[in-house]
């Protein structure tokens, strides 16, 4: 869950994240989260964003609101600047990766509330 240190890293976005959303604020935390996704087999979505990204800050409130509607999914936020090693293959922000049965099954680039909601529904 979100600890004070992780919460401070998101203050620049002007949003208090719900406790349901896990935040990766380092490469080691993101690696641990990815390992948990693979071993727990819980459906999950990772939102890769950046504090400087205007589009990321526009979709983040929707991501947060949808976390309470899709209770079967695990929601994760990872800032690419805080996890540079693990996110080096992320080329666009925001990028959403969807996992089912421990494997990545889908990805979405950019914003769009309906697109995101539809993808979450599909993978929940």
From TrEMBL:
Transmembrane segments annotated in the record for this chain: none
Domain of life: Eukaryota
Pfam families, alphabetized: Thioredoxin
Coiled-coil stretches: none
Domain Thioredoxin: 37-117
The protein's name in its UniProt record: Thioredoxin domain-containing protein
The species this protein was found in: Dendrobium nobile
């Amino acid at each position: 869950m979100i600890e004070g240190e992780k919460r401070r890293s998101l203050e620049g976005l002007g949003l208090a994240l719900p406790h349901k959303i896990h935040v990766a604020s380092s490469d080691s935390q993101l690696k641990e989260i990815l390992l948990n996704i693979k071993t727990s087999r819980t459906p999950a979505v990772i939102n890769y964003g950046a504090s400087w990204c205007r589009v990321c800050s526009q979709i983040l409130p929707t991501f947060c609101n949808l976390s309470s509607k899709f209770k079967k999914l695990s929601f994760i936020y990872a800032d690419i600047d805080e996890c540079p090693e693990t996110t080096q293959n992320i080329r666009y922000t925001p990028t959403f990766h969807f996992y089912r049965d421990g494997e990545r099954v889908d990805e979405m680039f950019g914003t769009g509330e309906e697109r995101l909601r539809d993808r979450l529904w599909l993978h929940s």
